[in-house]
Design brief:
- By secondary structure, the protein is of the alpha+beta class.
- 44% of the residues lie in helices and 12% in strands.
- The radius of gyration is 24 Å and the shape is elongated.
């Protein structure tokens, strides 16, 4: 009789504690394909699901979206859209998700923020660094002499 190699990961009770959800929620999400454990899936009575660290992070993202007021239906839609768009079984590991309670936004590594539920419609793309550089450049164009720039900084100087 061969023994299966032991997998390092998280079993359902540990995941529930880490994420702050019930076993019933975790079981439902796995059975319906929202988040499927990547290390081991349950195969009948006595077997256990084993979740990777990335799985746990994705589950926590889903829990945070629920806490922000998003419905599970919208979360499920967003995850499916991201899976298709990113061609990945773990789309939540590659993107930062934000929510205002009405929709879900995805912030990609290229600093673009899109409305996931509107299938990638761009919302805004503002990064502080480039804006700061633009303002500094505009100030330098208006006041190329550093002494004049220093005079502007000194508020209330005679």
């Amino acid at each position: 009789m061969t023994q299966e190699p032991e997998l390092s990961g998280y079993r359902a009770p540990q995941v529930c504690k880490l994420v702050g959800i019930t076993y019933r929620q975790l079981d439902y999400w796995a059975r319906t394909g929202l988040i499927i454990p990547t290390l081991a899936q349950a195969h009948g009575s006595g077997s256990q699901r084993i979740y990777s660290f990335t799985d746990v992070v994705q589950l926590k993202v889903i829990k945070n979206l629920l806490d922000a007021g998003m419905s599970l239906k919208k979360i499920r839609s967003a995850v499916e859209i991201l899976r298709t768009e990113m061609d990945s079984d773990q789309p939540l590991a590659d993107v930062t998700l934000l929510s205002d309670g009405k929709t879900i936004y995805a912030a990609h590594s290229d600093q673009e923020v899109v409305d996931v539920l509107r299938k990638g419609q761009g919302v805004f793309s503002i990064a502080i660094g480039p804006v700061q550089d633009q303002v500094e450049g505009a100030i330098h164009l208006l006041f190329p002499d550093e002494e004049e720039l220093a005079g502007i900084v000194e508020v209330g100087a005679p």
